[in-house]
Design a protein that fits this description.
By secondary structure, the chain is of the alpha+beta class. The chain contains eleven helices and 22 strands. The longest helix is centred in the last third of the chain and has 18 residues.
């Protein structure tokens, strides 16, 4: 990957399209005739969407260069299986976002703008650049931040410290409304012609999935490599407990990686659909870059901002789901009353409240924690709502909340230092933050329950919080339960 430097130039837009040559073969001012859409003699079930594509093509063809101005147009369309649509349209880097309530979804193909940064020092400028580009447009950037705030190495080399894209073509659902939209952003006439040509080509190559499309998983896992086994896990947990006993730490999150090799590449967006369907009440996300795809199904919100209103939460403390209704209820009672689990959750709650306190007013939260139930595990959960003080933006919120003790530890600085010294796995974007950003609205999920996919290789990640009273064997079982959630959708 092209090296980038942590200064203002590092967050200027980088626009790349997989398989695209820098030389389009077209001179400036060349008229580009749209490739006609193929139509069946029998009325297509996607006729309304195809008509919207035709209108978008006409709009794009008539666009004229406006230096440094975003060109955006959208058309209403019927609802569609967005993950199925992404699966059959591998013509540009793809991205996906789904909120926990499934009231907001975004699927993108290609990149009208790509912003990257190599360190946390550029986070504020990157976010300011997003707001500058969007201005009054009703569009969002989708992307994320690495856990450690630095660019990735080795298997994470395609994922810098931060990366956000404004899709060239986006399918967006908000409540009951669905739109297909196009975006174009150029800073020179030559670049405008090239990007406009490419956008027209992308529109003309779009396919639409049949109803009920679901690619079965035909690949098998032929090799599994764990970065630690139970004896090593016990050793690492005991080392953490020793530091806790000496008062240097209150909590550290231990991360684990499982490396899977398959007989063939999997249909990643079909796998993500099954993963999300088996975990209702979770965020869904995917970011594709340089042939690799980071995807996940996370239950944890970092925060949601709507103008000056912010919703955040503490999510910590974990037990398995029961095999029967009675056993599940017994596990829930343990989650509510076990001193170790209550203490672990309390650490996260106190951290979140203290971190946002300088930036907000009117903080509200329930007196008692609730429970979030997933397919294999359940967590303690406490929502927190507040009003932002004037002038507070996403940069301050991200700095305050990321990473939380739920994925790092407490105190945060000491836990981060311990992880850097002791952890052998590269987290990359695992346990980072992934979400959408716009001037009016933003939302981020904590990037847990996630996997990095490169054709027939899948790296799966899970983590567990170690506090005073943690039992190494029980924590190992929790790590296994979190990995099993993903393995189940692969049929393993």
């Amino acid at each position: 990957m092209t090296s980038r430097h942590p200064h203002p130039a590092a967050i200027e837009p980088h626009r790349r399209f997989p398989g695209e040559s820098d030389d389009t073969g077209l001179g400036r001012g060349t008229n580009v005739a749209p490739i006609p859409l193929q139509r069946n003699r029998v009325r297509s079930p996607h006729a309304p969407v195809e008509a919207a594509v035709s209108r978008l093509l006409g709009q794009v063809k008539n666009w004229r260069f406006r230096e440094g101005a975003l060109l955006h147009h959208r058309e209403p369309v019927p609802g569609m299986d967005l993950l199925g649509w992404l699966q059959i349209n591998p013509h540009g880097a793809r991205c996906f976002w789904q909120d926990r309530e499934r009231s907001s979804r975004l699927a993108g193909v290609g990149a009208a703008v790509e912003l990257v940064a190599d360190s946390n020092h550029d986070r504020e400028r990157l976010l300011a650049r997003i707001n500058s580009i969007l201005r009054e447009h009703d569009a969002v950037f989708l992307g994320g931040f690495a856990f450690a705030g630095t660019s990735g190495k080795d298997e994470w080399s395609a994922f810098p410290a931060a990366r956000f894209v404004l899709p060239a073509i986006e399918f967006r659902q908000r409540g009951q409304e669905h739109h297909l939209a196009v975006n174009l952003f150029a800073e020179s006439p030559g670049e405008f012609v090239r990007l406009k040509t490419h956008l027209i080509e992308l529109l003309c190559r779009l396919k639409f999935p049949p109803q009920g499309l679901d690619d079965p998983v035909t690949a098998r896992v032929v090799r599994r490599m764990d970065d630690m086994d139970l004896p090593l896990c016990r050793e690492r947990i005991n080392a953490i407990l020793a530091d806790i006993a000496e008062g240097r730490l209150h909590k550290v999150v231990l991360a684990r990686r499982v490396d899977l090799r398959l007989t063939a590449p999997v249909a990643v967006f079909s796998v993500l659909r099954r993963w999300c369907d088996s975990n209702p009440g979770s965020f869904g996300f995917a970011m594709e870059q340089a042939g690799e795809l980071f995807m996940g199904c996370s239950p944890e919100r970092l925060y949601r901002r709507w103008e000056r209103q912010i919703h955040t939460e503490s999510l910590a403390g974990t037990v398995r789901r029961g095999r029967t209704r009675e056993e599940d209820a017994a596990m829930e009672r343990r989650l509510r009353h076990d001193p170790k689990l209550v203490h672990e959750h309390d650490l996260v709650t106190r951290f979140v409240r203290s971190q946002i306190e300088p930036w907000v007013t009117d903080t509200e939260s329930p007196i008692e924690a609730g429970i979030i139930k997933l397919d294999r595990i359940q967590h303690r959960h406490l929502p927190i709502r507040a009003t932002l003080k004037p002038g507070v933006l996403d940069a301050q919120l991200l700095h305050a909340l990321h990473p939380t003790p739920a994925v790092c530890g407490f105190p945060r600085g000491a836990a981060q230092a311990f992880i850097r010294r002791q952890e052998t796995v590269q987290r990359g974007w695992y346990s980072g933050a992934v979400g959408i950003v716009s001037p009016r609205h933003s939302e981020f999920a904590v990037a847990i329950r996630s996997a990095l996919v490169n054709r027939d290789r899948i790296l799966c990640y899970s983590g567990v919080g170690i506090v005073d009273g943690s039992d190494p064997d029980a924590e190992w079982n929790e790590l296994e339960a979190k990995i099993e959630s993903f393995l189940s959708v692969l049929g393993c």
